[in-house]
Write a structure and sequence with these properties.
Elements: H1 20-59, H2 64-83
């Protein structure tokens, strides 16, 4: 039996079929392949989630004009309150 990696003989290889190093290398190659596939799948999931989030954000109405309007209204109110003259206490007597 050959020590070359092939899906048909991967699980049937034993240490007597070829040297221990070749089998170890085959298993390590398989581990790297599985890890690469897991990483690619996770990256695809993350990209899909980001795309969906971007679509939701683009479709949502922009809340900033309301915040800006409230901010300007509060600023105008503060300016108006500051321009109101306080009653003058000059010349008033305490009783």
């Amino acid at each position: 039996m050959s020590c070359l990696f092939a899906p048909a003989n991967f699980f049937t290889l034993t240490s007597t079929d070829c040297s221990r190093g070749a089998l170890y290398n085959t298993v390590m190659d398989m581990n790297e392949y599985v890890l690469e596939m897991l990483v690619r799948d996770r990256l695809a999931e993350i990209r899909a989630e980001v795309e969906q989030s971007n679509r939701i954000r683009a479709a949502a109405p922009n809340a900033r004009p309301w915040k800006l309007a409230w901010r300007h209204a509060l600023i105008r109110m503060v300016h108006r309150l500051q321009t109101i003259e306080a009653p003058s206490t000059h010349g008033a007597t305490r009783g």
